[in-house]
Every structure is written in C-alpha cells, then in structure tokens.
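[job 4471] stage=fold_predict status=RUNNING
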Amino acid sequence: MGAKILVSACLMGHAVRYDGRAKPLAHPALDRWRAEGRLITICPEMSAGMPVPRLPAEIEPGKSAAEVLSGGARVLEINGDDVTAEFRQAAKNALALAIETGCAYALLIDGSPSCGSGFIYDGSFSGRRQPGEGVTAALLKAHGIQVFSDRDIDALVEVLGSTV
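[job 4471] inference complete, writing structure tokens
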C-alpha cells in the first residue's frame, strides 16, 4: 500500500461545509486511493465541534494562518464572533490524525480558512480571494506534510507516481 493521504471530508462528498453542502471531487486517482485504503477523511472544523451549517468565517484582514497559530491573528465569523480557538483546535486535530495514521500528504479544499492552501478569502466577507493558506493547511505544512489543493490533484498524482 502507498502513502496515506489526509482528505477534506467535503471533497469526498460529505455535507460538512459551512453552508451544509459537500464539494465532491471526481478524479480516477481518488477512486483508486479509496479502494486501496489510502484516504483518511476529516473535516477539521467538525472535529473541533463546530456545527453544520455554520456561519462563514475568514482570517481577519491582513493576517495569515501562521499568525493565527502563533496567537497574533483571529478567525472571525461574518457576525464578528471570534472562532480562533475552534480553528486552532481543528488544525491540531487534523495534524494528530495525520500523524496517527501516517499521512505524508493532504488533499484539502482551497479557499477555506482551515483547509485553503493556494488561496483564502481576504477577511472582508466580500468574496475577494488572496494568496494564502488556512490554519489547518499551515500547521500540516509546518510539520512536513505536503499539502495539495483540490485544484492541484494532478500534481499530487505526479508526486505519488503513476498510481492512477
């Protein structure tokens, strides 16, 4: 069996996103990895006790996931409530699961304040994207786990070799 891959639950068809929906990713590699027992599924926010649905949340403007992890920034819901503690716990839970199950890679939904790895939203709740990563993606990367976004699944396939 090949390397294990931590995967955002919403990409696997679970209705766990903030809006109560899934965002399933269809790709032959996912089917094969699932059949091989290589996929470890998690919704970091749900693992930290956050409900579905939940209010949209973004890292505060001008701040980064690294700053959230170090205590220098917050994750706020659209109504202004601070959910930083939940997002930090979500990241810790994802890291613990990845380590426990031997995941060397993660395939996470882009744009999320937790799982984003290529872009996140700018904290204004206006739909504006900016380069950056979510709290979980940042913590996984800091611990040597290679993180790929759903848009970069072909790059993950390439890294893992011709296993499709």
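[job 4471] summary: The chain has a mean pLDDT of 96.
[job 4471] exit 0
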